[in-house]
Amino acid sequence: xxxxxxxxxxxxxxxxxxxxxxxxxxxxxxxxxxxxxxxxxxxxxxxxxxxxxxxxxxxxxxxxxxxxxxxxxxxxxxxxxxxxxxxxxxxxxxxxxxxxxxxxxxxxxxxxxxxxxxxxxxxxxxxxxxxxxxxxxxxxxxxxxxxxxxxxxxxxxxxxxxxxxxxxxxxxxxxxxxxxxxxxxxxxxx
Length: 190
Prior knowledge:
Number of strands: 0
Strand content: under 5%
Oligomer: single chain
Mean pLDDT: 88
Number of domains: 2
Number of helices: 8
Largest sheet: none
Helix content: over 70%
Low-confidence stretches: 182-190
Order of helices and strands: HHHHHHHH
Structural class: mainly alpha
């Protein structure tokens, strides 16, 4: 082969190698992004994937949620606030014995109050759940389950056992919001 034939061949090979390297880097970055989102969102990643039926759309949704919540001024409660909310919860829990329906309604309001005090904006339930999923992905499903029971109760379709389960679910989220749980996935932003 003469040098005129080798130069285009070398150029084509160089371009192919660069394209292969670029594709490998892109695939690595995509895999890393997916791993990071799975790690951060846990079960909420799978829920988003089920809701969107498309990995790219699910991941975009999760990234948008995280970006939205990053704009909030989420902060931990101080000791006095935590104590006051804990006492409020004890009162609601004791109310459950005499009036389970009222206790569940009050528990929902108490969770919303803690969220607001921590810096989450108040809004519709579904937006609240999406916002919570960013910092509390392992307990946000409790919030959804408890809310579903509260809705069924308004229609007179929730049993006392359903209401008990709702209180347990609200309690898991409440404890996580207060920072009571030992395994908190949240990093409090300042």
